[in-house]
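Structure tokens please, single chain.
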Amino acid sequence: MKKIFFVSLALSASLFAADNDLVMATTTSTDNTGLLDAIYPAYKAETGVDIKWTAVGTGAALKLGENCDADILFVHSPKVEKEFVEKGFGVDRTPVMYNDFILIADKSIAPKFKGKDLKG
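Here you go.
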């Protein structure tokens, strides 16, 4: 996953390298994972580009992108992201991560989930 993230950011960095800052709008859940804090030093060392990010909800992050207040968005609403690009506010949508939820429970509740779309 990190390689995809670095590739996406590296491409963005080349587009915005003139001012040597990359402004990212991300979701609070992504920021709360600590992922950005963990990979930022390596990215800065490799590219020399400083990332400044703000953590907000997906809708607010998309609005920042729409208003050109962010160079790159790190959000998680595939349908809305595709619409954002289709409307001309973004140039590319690259999936970077996904959530994987695992239900751990007694087998006796398994019939409650039979036939349900658990990927939706």
